[in-house]
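We close this part of the discussion by returning to an individual protein. Part of our work consisted of pairing the sequence of a single chain with a tokenised description of its backbone. What the numbers capture is local backbone geometry rather than side-chain detail. The amino acid sequence and the backbone structure tokens for this protein are reproduced below.
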Amino acid sequence: MIKFFDFKREYSGLKEEINIKIDEVLSKGNFINGNELQDFESKFSKYIGTKNGLGVNSGSDALFMAIKALDINRDEEVITVSHTFISTVDAITRNNAIPVFVDIDPDTYCIDVSKIESKITDNTRAIIVVHLYGHPADMDPILKIAKKHNLFVIEDCSQAHGAKYKGKTVGSLGDISCFSFYPVKNLGAYGDGGFIALNDDFLFEKLEMMHNYGQSMKNQYEFVGLNSRLDEIQAAILNVKLEYLDIWNNERKKLANSYNKLLDNSIYKIPCTKEYADHVFHLYVIRTSKRDEIRDYLLKKDIQTMVHYPIPIHKQNAYKNFASSDNIPITEEICSQIVSLPINPWLKSFEVEEICEILNNMENING
């Protein structure tokens, strides 16, 4: 079977390095806030290009804490997209703020910059930009709009580790950036993990307290915080894997290039890469009117696929009552068309060829 993501393949290539690192942590007996975490926070911040970085429990916590740290209050509005993973919007509503949805660009599936200003009101405080599928959003005009209207920009980089916008690594462009280290990410832990990156020292100090119950020093609590820490074992694993991130991203690009060359683009809409973007292909997403038939057919051929995301957030029961969920036709149009094909650094080129050969033979789908 061609799996969508094969953890056994990944681990087999890293087994010796990972096991040594985990043994070191176990031998030292320090599992929280140790040297591995400090080392990773320093290295990953430098990799992104920010002054400060904080390891936390998950990408979801990173987004929640970023909004909270910016003092975005009840009933204030945060602009974002409906075509994203649920945690982007969950972070807004858990802070009692209101998500305002903007449609997406039909080529990149990132936020449509031309639609942002029409959604800004006196209550708008921030824009959460999602660098989706590994493709950066068009940041320069977004930052220009934010500056004009005095808005914060939060980058959701959970699907774009190592992606670049005009030569700058995503996560270094907005006021605060958030990453997830969920295992299938371009940089993934072997459990949950997240990261907040920023340059502002005051906000960083606030976040340092926030992720440790609001504690400024032992037994002194300045405000109500939460317990959200990246543990030593996950940090140790990430320290190993960070050294390979650029290599792995290059492998993803090579595989994506093979898909682009081999797939019949008269049948499928294949991913694009804008001139300003260094796309790292967390996902390889195509569009087709026969999405469900194709998925069923590929599964019969022992090829796993996924859909990211079949139901937009504004159509989910938990979020359908929020305002400004109208006039996002591209978001609604693509939901029945998108399908994610296998792509990861351990996928073989002959497997991509096999997938493309099957997909290009449309007559076999119903045969």
In short: The longest helix spans residues 7-28.
